[in-house]
Amino acid sequence: MPLTEPSFNLFAHTLTVLEWSRLVEALASHARSSLGALQCRESAFAPNLEEARRRQQETMEMTGLQEGAEPAPSFAFPDVREALSKAGKGAVLEGPELRDHAAVFALWEEAYTYVSRHRNEAPALAAVAGPLHAINEVRDLRKCLDEAIHADGSVKESATPDLRRLTHHANELRQQMRARLDDLLQSSRYEEVLQERYFDQREGRYVLPIKAEMEGRVAGIVHDVSSSGATVFLEPRELVDLNNAIKIAEREINREVMRILRELSSLVASHLSLISAGIGALAQLDGIAARGRLAKQLGAHAVALNDRGVIRLKEARHPLLALAKEHVVANDLALDEETRVLIISGPNTGGKTATLKMVGLFALMARSGLLLPCAPGSEMALFPSIYADIGDAQDLTRDLSSFSAHMIQMIALLNEMQAIRAWAPSPRPGQALVLLDEPVTSTDPTEGAALAAALLCRLAAVGSKVIATTHYGALKTLAQTTRGFANASVEFDVRSLSPTYRLFMGVPAGSSAIDIAGRLGMDAALLEEARRKLEGDDHTFDDMLRDLHDKQRRLADDLARAAQARREAEEAARLTKEQLARLEATEWEERRGIKKKLQEQFSRAKAEMQATIDAAKRDQQLIRVKEAKQRLIELEAETRAELEPPRRTVPVDALKVGDAVEMPGLGMVGTLLESPVGKKRVRVKVGEGEVSAAVGNLIGLSEGAMGETTAGFISPPAIKRELSPVRSYHAEDRAVIDVRGKAADEALDEVMAGLDRATLSGVPMLRVIHGHGTGRLKSALRQYLLVSPYVERFRPGDRSEGGDGVTVITLR
Fold first, then answer.
1. Cβ-based neighbours of 170, under 8 Å, separated by 6 or more
2. How far apart are the first and last CA of the chain?
3. Would you say residue 689 has pLDDT above 70?
4. What is the pLDDT of residue 721?
5. Partner of 432 for a Cys bridge, out of 17, 464, 506, 593, CB 3.0 to 4.6 A?
6. Cα–Cα nearest to 633, from 621, 622, 641, 643
């Protein structure tokens, strides 16, 4: 069934009691144009769920754009509908009316450009702006208006060549007239007859102020007389021809101006439907922008919309109260698909009626594309019909008591619900929202409670979602014992004897009438007598409700504190994580600084070493290589002394098997596998392998100093990368370089680097695996080895070493 309002009187009454017009006016005040404000006031409610979601999406997109780096245009433009209608009927528009059209076209182009630029992030707004796509026609029309009309609405002299020519001619005539007038005012002939030395205009003709008694001395035409009669405004005969010429020139100018205005009006009229559609789009965009500004003012958010009658509001605030007050108590309210009737009880002035109005306004706002003042994650049902009976319905003009007036409205409502049921024989919650403020009062309480219970059951049966306030204990019991019914209550603080406006779901509450009367100043003895007159069961029931409410309040407070503690814990965890990230970033920056210094130091050392090696290659002298090796060791020691704290060392002669040693030349740390006493070279375990190292290059480390190194390599990592060995060394003191599959140039570079490192570390033999292939790589490598200053001799490997696919090198 499509969404329809109840009959006019019922729905109009609903809008009145919910004070919908106040919210609409608040919305309209955010519009920037009169048409946008009208759009806010007259916009119909969404007829279905799809349309309601589309409108909400429009508002969300506009809100996002308004909060972005490039805010949306203001959408302020004049209302040109009446002038446009006149043009469509063939009337000639005035200059200011055409100027207003030009202002509309300027905003049109600005809005089109803006929406087009944000089309991907605001597709719903782009759809609204569809009529603005006729921008080229509008741009041409605006150009014509701008070329012809001044900002003050007057026609420009440059509008046409004829107007320019006529205007220049009229100006020349006026200059001639002023020159003639100046001559007359200065002449002795007019000295006695002039009242004062000035000229004026009457009926568009230039005149002089002549003394009344001197009128007969000047030939001419009298056009006016002063109020005192002492002065006559006379056009001298000698000015008549020039005045006539000026009048003719002005008439021709007016004729040309009218022709221009007629052409421009006709041009506007030829685009009447296009302009009307564009104006409608601009007004709609202004209305959406107003919805976005209202959402910001209310602190509102988008909600999930459904047609199942489900309401889940988190931290919901009454929109009218949120507009009027800075702080409004927020409440949660939840009605699932199975709950058809919610009974809200509690003391007077506790907020029951405000809750009713809030839900009703939320239902109307959801159908209007407005965002709701509640927390994200909320959900609101879209109701086809909305009805509210709130306040005193007494009508003295119709001789109706409050009870009778309410009953007439209930009868009309039931008839309306019956009509809805005809559309949906199997009703489900969500077809109508009914809000009842203390139904069936102003009569006998027992009969009133019974009639109210029957009414609520009937409304639930026909598929209505009902929220009602009550003081009837029978309705509270009904809600507690009947499937599809639920209780809720507003809190009353018995200690301060004042309402807190907090809503509790699932529990009823007493009216606290005696307590409130005491707070208002009622005599204490009278109150005590009233308590004694309460029937025992009622008194016990009220005490039970009060105790239940107190427990509910404490539970809610504990839950709120737990939620707050969780938020604080999450915030502390977030801050701790951010602090840790900052500390890690700081530590990383410091490490990068050390690394950079080390790299700079060792880059200089490598450059110096490479220069020495190049010289050694040229001179064929290994002594230079050893000098470079020693220099590198010295540079490394200087760098470590500069960047690292001093470490405790152990003399080499005092070392024994198992002690930690450092090999600066290799940038490695290992464990002695044999005693260095009396030996030139020893085996050292590094990681999972072992190497042969010269005793003279070893540095013994104490146990404490060993902790400053990483497994196998000296910290920091820069040394590891700069001087890591080519391969692990075997016990036979032979290093291995594998260059299979590489280009000759690349392989030669790796072999030369390996020879450099092997010479520095004192390795006597090197094995190069190059494979067989075409033989080109093997030939190139052996050709180089013939001239290398490091190589004493080389040979093909034997069968156990890999045959001719391997070259074994003995170093000098």
1. 246, 249, 250, 253
2. 101
3. no
4. 34
5. 464
6. 641
